[in-house]
Amino acid sequence: MIFNNKDYNIPKITIGCEALGGTDWGNKDIEVLSKVINEAFDCGYNCFDTADVYGLGESEKRIGNIFKNRKDKVFIITKFGIRWHQKNKSRRALTYKDLSVEYLRKALEGSLSRLQIDAIPLYLVHWPDTNYEIEPIIEEMIKQKEKGKILNFGLSNFSLSGITSNALSKIDAICNSYNMLDTKSNKHILDKGKKLNKSIFVYGTLAQGLLTGKFKNNNVFDMTDRRSRLEHFKKLNNKDLQDIINKISEIGMKINNTPAQVVHKWVMTKQVANSSILGISNLTQLKELLDVSNSSLEESFTKDLDYLSNKYVNNILS
What tens digit of pLDDT does each residue of 34-75 get? Predict the structure, then answer.
């Protein structure tokens, strides 16, 4: 993947490190997650995605510690724009958006310190904030880039209608969600970014694990797991959804792939992004990625999944 005429050799899969923050994904063994991230690096994955708000800074701190002696060999993506305030550590922190230039400067210094690096390879605006215009943030990003504190910058979770052509022309990268359950929401900005030769990242390709088929109607998530709050996990009996999950499983059995591998292959056939951000919790999941990276999904299987995906999306939107 090329940023500003420099090829960073970023693979088609970026390792998502949100769970390394220790919150929002249930009880995770941080030692195991750290081992998996180290193993992923040893296997050739050099791009790691985080944000300052993940674990309220803990994800960045742990990435900084993992790679402090190899910082020149990794491409770290982090994000800013969500502030947090925690009165009681036994409860969820209060979070709110802030895209002021003043907070950008403060957040940038915080991320640099936690990550133990001098410059952030890719710095993203995490979410839009209707209280602020995006142009002043873009201009400040340019200044910080000139100072050498940011190497590249971009936008995450923005729609094409929420950004001016002038701002879009100045950024280096776009990051948005994309999966079989939602192929339309971000298609316009992803396509436009690709046309303008921006580097494109997508996340949520497994729909937070829903498309693996391992969650059932009676599955209960505790409040430490964000899936307890996600709408699509409250509609597991939806027939169109179950048709997709069953077809993924059926294809997987035919080609000796896990459901996750089938989904990864389908996303790659869509060619909407340069790299997909995928969270990995254990070495088994890492092996799945290694086995799938250099193979593709047959056209007939892709068409079957496209049909079911379009049916689901159209019914949800209607």
Answer: 999 999 999 999 999 999 999 999 999 999 999 999 999 999
CATH number at residue 140: 3.20.20.100
Quote the CA–CA distance of 128 and 121 in Å, as a whole number.
21
Q: How far is CA 237 from CA 147, 198, 219, in A?
A: 53, 38, 12
- Distance (Å, whole) CA 270 – CA 292: 15
Does residue 309 belong to any structural domain of this protein?
Answer: no
CB atoms within 10 A of CB 70: 11
| Predicted TM-score of the model (pTM) | 0.93
Return the amino acid letter for 237.
N
Domain residues for 137?
Answer: 2-209+260-296
Domains contained in the chain, number? 1
Q: Is residue 285 part of a domain?
A: yes
User: Pick from 40, 74, 77: which is nearest to 288 by CA?
Assistant: 40
